[in-house]
Amino acid sequence: MAARLYLILFAGLLLAQALSVGLMYYERYTTAVSVMLDTIEREVGTSVAILDRLPATERPAWLERLQRDNYRFIIGPGQQGVPLVSSRSRELTAMIAKEVGEAYRVHGDTVSVTPERYQIHLTLHDGSPITMEVTPQGIPVADWLPLVLVLQVALLLACGWIAVRLATRPLKTLAQAVEAVNPAGEALRLPQDGPIEVANAALAFNAMQERIARHLRERLHILASISHDLQTPITRMRLRAESLDDGIERERLLADLGEMEHLVREGVAYARSAHGGDEAPVRIDPTAFVESLVFDYQDVGQPVSLTGIVEGVATVRPRALRRVLVNLIDNAVKYGGAAEVAACRTEGGGLCITVSDRGPGIPETELEEVLQPFYRMEASRSRDTGGAGLGLAIATQLMLSIGGNLTLANRDGGGLVATVVLP
């Protein structure tokens, strides 16, 4: 939009400037031609009268005195050419003939390839031929005029750029505010001032943020209420199932109740993951943070190793980040047999943590889909294995809520690598 507005403004102003310059030049040209014709008419009449009264031997000495920038006199008949073709040359010839009188027998010819260069032939009273060669000159242009035109164009460019910047700055602010909106519906409120259109857009955006936040709060409240209300009947059903005699039906009932409890807990966890940004960010040593997490797994005999460390400090939300990494490591151990954790720096100085495994990986067409809620890969992440299809969705939403990003990619040589990037 900025480029289009700038192009429209600059093109319009430049065309207006060019039209003004063209009209001024045409007016100046018309005036100059009128003055020139009137001056030539009178000067030529005087010059011819002087040459007519001078002796033939003295006339050549007076030619240089009577010469002007756009015409000169030649003693003799001059060159022969074609009849005059331009209206201005015919008009000038007629004016000179009228001024000097019919006794001088005035007529004109074109004598060069340029129609505007022509000769006017006269005959003095003593019969001597005199030729007036006319070479019209262009309108003189001052040396400072091109510089002024360049400065005017530069001024148009600067004014157009400033105008476009002022017009598009609210849109840029709005775009930045939209990009900053997180799943929790938390973002800075836009100032509701400026032009009416900008104020209305800011008002609508702020109202949208409030609706999103209210909707998410209602969703969390509904899920928490459902979870709380379901706990009691599930507990009663479990007690009744446990009171039954041992058998296949009893085991099936207990398994179904366990799956229901797991689904309820995962649903509430997914709803709460949108509010991961509520945690205050703190400065930590990322190497120590990752080492602590890996050592916790190693203490319980899990095949988790640390393959890369990073220097310096990072500002993160540790509880949310730890929950994301735990989810990814659990998946790597569960479906790949082992997990490799590494920390590094991005090109922009952000924190990057990868969790890799040597499992079966994920088809390229499903790398994005597995991040969606309740999506399961039947071959490995089915209900039979305890997966509810919310683990990666929770991790993804947590990363969005704390301003980070989670991506999945298949690993060279087999396996999957999950990359967590924080600014």
List the helices and strands and how they pair.
Elements lengths: L1 H52 L5 H8 L4 E5 L6 E2 L3 H14 L6 E4 L7 E6 L5 E6 L10 H36 L15 H47 L5 H26 L8 E3 L1 H14 L4 E5 L5 E3 L1 H19 L2 E7 L5 E6 L34 H11 L3 E6 L5 E7 L1
Parallel strand pairs: 7-9
Antiparallel strand pairs: 1-5, 2-3, 3-4, 4-5, 6-8, 9-10, 10-12, 11-12
Can you offer a commentary on this structure?
The protein is of the alpha+beta class. It folds into three domains: 2-134, 2-Layer Sandwich (Beta-Lactamase), CATH 3.30.450; 181-274, Helix Hairpins, CATH 1.10.287; 278-422, Heat Shock Protein 90. The chain is 54% helix and 14% strand. The chain has nine helices and twelve strands. A five-stranded antiparallel beta sheet has the order 1-5-4-3-2. Strands 7-9-10-12-11 form a five-stranded mixed beta sheet. This is histidine kinase. Residues 225-423 form the Histidine kinase domain. The chain crosses the membrane at residues 144-164.
Strand order of the largest sheet: 1-5-4-3-2
Q: Strand portion, in percent?
A: 5-15%
**What's the β-strand tally?**
12
In this structure, how is the largest beta sheet organized?
5 strands, antiparallel
Task: Write down the overall geometry.
Answer: rod-shaped
